[in-house]
Amino acid sequence: MLLRVGFLALVAVASVAWAVDTDKNPDLVAKLRVANTNLDRMKLLPNDTDWFFDFTKQDKYTFSPGGVVNANAASFPATAGHGMTMAILNLGPCSMLPPHIHPRATNFVVAISGTTQTYMVAENGARTVTETLRPGQMTIFPQASVHTMMNMGCDNAQLVSALNSDDSGTTNLANTFFSFPQNITGTVIGGGLNAQDILGRVPAVGTGSNAGPQACIAACAKKGKMVKREW
Ligand SMILES: *[C@@H]1O[C@H](CO)[C@@H](O)[C@H](O)[C@H]1NC(C)=O
Ligand SMILES: *[C@@H]1O[C@H](CO)[C@@H](O)[C@H](O)[C@H]1NC(C)=O
Q: Nearest ligand to the C-alpha of residue 51?
């Protein structure tokens, strides 16, 4: 039993570890953070390539089911010290970003294509804010607010996301909640539900995006809009 719990905990840790941005050049970022002057910083970034980031060439740039591509201190060292992350959010048909928070940043999101529904709760007692974003429209997810979004259409949706930290962090609610012991999670949910079993059904953080509801996917597939994939 203990072994089983240990194994499940390991699986949870492994899937979270896979999803976080790879720290591309921690030594360079450390030097950029302690540089005395901006001219010292410029010397640390001598090449034009040091100032260039191609979202479309990153591993998480996918629409099957989707992905969050961050240009931040981990993935693009030149961002270090500017207090910003820029991200591109790709959502295939029906795909979603599951409920999550950014512990260290407020998040402004602008739709570029598609139709995306968003939900946000700022804290306990606050109302749920929901928006439908079409191209050129934006909403705000304040720092540490719980938020989620879903592509309402059968075409790809793309959004640009700006965050006011070069290390915003992301905490997925379901993955985190169900990783706590059964005597916590099972009690919160009530009814003696086996929370460890539910953890096994929560999709890994993965690319940051999950496939959407089966009914939506089936409807889009009927219209010939779904690309073949392995859900
Ligand atoms: C700058 O680019 C050149 C040529 O691509 C490379 O040899 C050199 O290592 C780069 N310098 C740094 C500091 O990245
Ligand atoms: C809750 O479960 C955990 C993990 O099985 C255990 O370590 C802890 O002692 C339990 N707490 C209580 C109050 O029973």
A: 1
Residue stretches of the chain with pLDDT short of 50: 1-17, 230-231
For the Cβ of 46 lying below 6 angstroms from any atom of ligand 1, the answer is: yes
CA gap 138, 181 in Å, rounded: 38
Closest ligand by atom to 49 CA: 1
Domain 54-170+208-223 is in which class?
A: mainly beta
Domain boundaries, the chain: 54-170+208-223
Q: Which atom of ligand 1 is nearest to the CA of 47?
A: 1
Q: Can you give the pTM of this predicted structure? A: 0.87
- Residue 30 Cα to ligand 1 midpoint, Å, equals 19
pLDDT in tens, 174-188: 999 999 999 999 999
- Can you say whether residue 138 is alpha, beta or left, with left for phi > 0 and alpha for psi between -120 and 50 degrees? beta
